[in-house]
Design goal:
The chain is α+β, with helices and mostly antiparallel strands and 321 residues long. The chain is 44% helix and 23% strand.
Length: 321
């Protein structure tokens, strides 16, 4: 039944659009024939109505075509997004925090929920790392377009001489694995460490070892969580993150895409970026995979990245499923 419903969800919209297209084509031919015989204002009104219907139909066809780009096995799932600084020192750590805000704003604009699973502040400014869970329909399907190295060029707010700096941050995106998918994790393969969560200090400082770090020894994957006061809850969230990472790794092996995965985890520095955000000496955001550009950098940093996501999925979506 699930497979039948899945097929219906594709066939029914396609058949409806096909019928409407045929009706509009027939109407267009009729208007053309009548237009040859008369040139009344009423004919112009019908022609305008036809053009509006064609525009609407074109938009719906494009939406169905884009939906086809999100047909991967995990496209409908929630997304686990982690961001780490690369080359650039304090600027790179600040860039991580800016990207966290960008994706949080993007989630809000789509009525998705964004929850911080783990956040490690840097000493001077910014973040050493952050993990977000973004929940909503096709969250992973969309955000898979963001996986890679992001480059920022700006006048550094941390440089007293006001020089231009380039900094990098990596974004990794995994599908969130629910209980319907089995991921075999042997307790013997885990090293679980507890430590005191970092914080602002003062009365808010955590006085117990509630933070949890889990290392999956065979793969070397490390996840951590310190957002909750309860060690049990932090461990539960960290295990969820580990399952997602292991599932993503297993998919890569099954599809023989290990080379692609390794390539996406290259050095977070020059030559490896998927997108550049330039604030100085000019303003421009450019996606190096699709060559899509946007001059309003602040709008992009406020979460308006759909043109990049849609452009990427239209070009590569059929290959990501």
């Amino acid at each position: 039944m699930q497979e039948i419903n899945e097929l219906k969800s594709w066939l029914e919209p396609f058949e409806e659009l096909h019928k409407r297209a045929a009706d509009l084509l027939e109407l267009g031919q009729l208007i053309q024939e009548e237009g040859d015989a008369s040139s009344s204002s009423s004919d112009d009104g019908v022609a305008d109505e036809l053009r509006a219907e064609v525009d609407q139909l074109s938009g719906e066809v494009e939406a169905l075509e884009f939906r086809n780009m999100l047909r991967g096995a995990d496209a409908e799932r929630d997304a686990l997004l982690t961001i780490h600084p690369g080359a650039g020192g304090t600027d790179a750590q600040d860039w991580v925090e800016i990207l966290m805000r960008l994706y949080t704003k993007w989630a809000e604009a789509h009525d998705y929920q964004a929850e911080v699973l783990n956040l490690v502040p840097a000493e001077e400014a910014g973040l050493k790392s952050v993990s977000l869970e973004i929940r909503g329909p096709y969250a992973y399907g969309y955000l898979q377009a963001e996986k890679g190295v992001h480059r920022l060029v700006r006048i550094s707010p941390f440089d007293q001489q006001g020089r231009r700096h380039t900094s990098f941050a990596s974004v990794f995106v995994y599908p969130v694995v629910d209980d319907t998918i089995e991921v075999d994790i042997s307790p013997e393969d885990l090293r679980i460490d507890t430590y005191r969560a970092s914080g602002a200090g003062g009365q808010h400082v955590n006085k117990t070892d509630s933070a949890v770090r889990i290392t999956h020894v065979p793969t070397g994957i490390v996840v951590s969580c310190q957002q909750e006061r309860s060690q049990y809850r932090n461990k539960s969230t960290a295990m969820k993150m580990l399952r997602a990472a292991l599932y993503d790794r297993a998919l890569a092996e099954q599809k023989e895409e290990r080379d692609k995965l390794d390539q996406s985890k290259t050095e977070i520095a020059w030559g490896n970026q998927i997108r550049s955000y330039v604030l100085q000496p000019y303003t421009l955001v450019k996606d190096h995979r699709t060559n899509i550009e946007e001059g309003n950098v602040q709008r992009v940093l406020d979460g308006y990245i759909d043109k990049f996501i849609i452009g990427y999925l239209k070009q590569y979506g059929a290959q990501t499923g």
